[in-house]
Amino acid sequence: MPSLSQRARSLGTENAFVVLAEVNALAAQGKDIVSFCIGQPDFPAPVHVQEAAIRAIREGKHGYTPSAGIDPLRAAAATYMAGMRGGLPIRAEDVVIGAGATPFIAYAILSTTDHGAGDEVIYPNPGFPIYESQIVACGAKPVPIHLKEDRDFAFDPAELEKLITSKTRLLILNTPHNPTGGILNRSSLEQIAEILRKHPQVWIYADEIYSRLCYTEAFFSIAQLPGMYERTIISDGASKTWAMTGWRIGFAANPALAPVLTRWITNTDSCASQISQWAAVEAINGPQDAAEAMKESFLERRNFICELLNKTPGVSCRLPGGAFYAWPNVTEACRMIGAGDSEEFRKRLLNEAGVAVLADIHFGSRVPGEGQHVRFSYAASKQAIEQGIARMADFIRKNTRRAA
């Protein structure tokens, strides 16, 4: 059989879907599983958004579109992103519509680095696993910058300054952050911007898909700071805000790179679904009641799950500033039950207690000195949260007695 390419062999994955397959296999065997592994809203898309998609189908709006997207959505997304970011001068022609926000990660790396040239991309660790996967697949060098628990899972800007070299071409920022729920506040972003002004060769990829899900403070983008807008690829989308994950609509904006991103889409997906694009126009321009109600629900669940986790033996959890993830420290819980690390803890929790979470190693190499962590997606009902954390607490208590 012909061999695979090195690129194909090195391509990573998103372990949330790997664990989901494990969950589904156990559920098929009749086992009762409470799952916190997938990061998507557990709400339907708003009714008026659904109706807009149905109208598009009935009106025959289901053929190819321009690769950059339909004009009404580019205009709506430009106004929306500008309004969320202090009135940035984002024009419709600066916006490109993609089949979700995830493809723009690869497009940004491909547009700013050259394969095999030693170009470096700095990315957050722990972080969305596709960052590292695509950096490697695109032939660039991945350079992780570690997020610290004592900084509420932000990184130290002084560490960034040490990591930037003449080969650095792209810095990936994600706020609010997956998997920790951490936020890069304005003060941190100002320090980062001050460092980047010394390194004009570095582009910024601002992954801001959770921009509408900030709880502790108003959302702020690095693109709003002097000199940063022109070099920042702003990435946002419909998935998290309007519960449209499967509709696959993302949007990215940059005045210089919009034509380049468009060509990448022409060479890959051709265009995003026209039906979904018309639904996204309605999502942005229509009533926001459902989106605000979802945010309020996530905030209640955040407070609820963190309260329960901090009452669980051997577990401590910082209050996340955004998104819908909790990142509890389970170092002591691992010690109590005799688990070697968070991945063993995760597997045992699934198979012995019927609770599905993700381990820290699913989001990059474990940060030195930071202990063991797991990720809960609290895009789940309060009933599921209560049941799942109760099972986890009982699992730790029972296995602590056995270990003793």
Topology summary:
Layout: H1 6-10, H2 15-28, E1 34-35, H3 47-58, H4 71-84, E2 95-98, H5 103-112, E3 120-125, H6 130-137, E4 141-146, H7 157-163, E5 168-174, H8 186-196, E6 203-207, E7 232-237, E8 250-253, H9 258-267, H10 274-285, H11 289-309, E9 325-326, H12 331-337, H13 342-353, E10 355-356, E11 358-359, E12 374-377, H14 382-403
Parallel strand pairs: 1-10, 3-4, 3-5, 5-6, 6-7
Antiparallel strand pairs: 2-8, 7-8, 9-12, 11-12
Helix pairs in contact: 3-10, 4-10, 5-9, 11-14
Please characterize this protein's 3D structure.
The protein is α/β, with parallel strands linked by helices. It folds into 2 domains: 6-44 and 290-403, Alpha-Beta Complex (Aspartate Aminotransferase, domain 1); 48-285, Aspartate Aminotransferase, domain 2. The protein contains 14 helices and 12 strands. The protein has helices at 6-10, 15-28, 47-58, 71-84, 103-112, 130-137, 157-163, 186-196, 258-267, 274-285, 289-309, 331-337, 342-353, 382-403, and strands spanning 34-35, 95-98, 120-125, 141-146, 168-174, 203-207, 232-237, 250-253, 325-326, 355-356, 358-359, 374-377. It is globular, with a radius of gyration of 21 Å. The mean pLDDT is 96.
